Each structure stands twice: as C-alpha cells, then as structure tokens.
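Sat 14:20. Reprocessing the chain from the morning session after the first attempt stalled halfway. Input below, unchanged.
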Amino acid sequence: MLGGFGSIQSMITSLRNNRNLLRNRKKLFQKDFSFAEAKALYQEKKRILQFKESTPAQLATIREEIRKERRRNTFVYFIAAFFAAVVVGFIGYKVFSPAIVSIKQNHLAERKQEAMEKERKFLFYVTDGDTWFEKGRWHNAIYQYRLAVNLYPADFNARYRLAQALVQHCVHSGEDCRNARITIKQLIKEYPENKALLQTEATLRELPGAPH
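Finished this time. Tokens:
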C-alpha cells in the first residue's frame, strides 16, 4: 500500500514540475519578461536536464562492449569474405576448368604428335642408311645413321649400324678409321659381352697400320 502511494506521489510531483516548466516557457514570450528572469529560468532548466556523469568503471565497461562488438563485426566480415571466396573459386573452377582441360589435352596431343614425327624420322634415317649400306655407299650410310643417333642417342641399333658403316668405310676407303675405333670402343665399354662388337673390333685390328 505504501509503495503504491509513493508512485502516485511521484506522478503528482512530476505533473507539477511539468506545469511549472510550461508556465515558465509561456513567460519567455511575454513582453515584460526580463533578461535576468530568462537567465535564471535557463539555469534552472539546465540543472533539471543535467545528465549524470559516468564512472571510470562504467566507461571501461562501455569500451569493452565496443571492442567486443568490433570483434564480432570483424568475425562476421571474415566469414562472409571466406564464403564469398569459396563461391567465386567454385564459379571460376566451373568456368575455367573445361578450358584448362582442353589446353592440357591439346598439349598432350601436340607432344604425342611430336613423338610420332620423331619416330617416323628415325625409322626413315635407319631404313635409308641400310639402303646406302647395302649399295656400298658408306659415306651416305654414315650420314643417315648419324641423323638417327642424334634423334635417339641411346638407341643401340642405330649406334651399331653407325659403327659398322664407319668400319666398312675404313676397310674399303681407308677413311674414318679413327672414328670407327672410337665408336666401337665406346659400344664395347657399354656392352662388353656383345660378340658382334668384339668381332668388329677384331676386324679393325687386322687392318694394316692398325694399333694393337
């Protein structure tokens, strides 16, 4: 009961103050209202409307809330940027992936074509060298075999044909004997048990003036 009476009393006091402020506001527009009275009324209203200053603890709490809000906003921006990047990356993958695959396929096709062309040239050089070898045209055979070896330096068949052509050129014309010996020795070093190479080396040793 006393609590209700206190609330009613507060309402009555508030209404009286409002009526007084309204009455004083009307006085401001009266011609006979002096400057001193207006100043006093201003000071009174300033005292009534004066806000209570915050304590250091309250200011610290406000600052902490502001920092928390900024951290929350930063986190939200980060998440939004992350998902935006994922979406953009997915769209980019869908758009550019077929083009990348096509480029890789074209590159592989080009490499395959180059390999086939290289193989075709190699077979031509070996076959043409064999033709010249059978005709006893050692110089032409040597030229073609060397082209084949340049394409596939590790190919034994091309290197062996070149060695045979050099040996035959040395035997029949007395030319390229030094190159023949060097080529045969290199092959024997890599294939020491090859009987055909050992026989060819023996043929070179039987030539007049050959080193023993």
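Residues 119-205 form a domain with the Serine Threonine Protein Phosphatase 5, Tetratricopeptide repeat fold (CATH 1.25.40.10).
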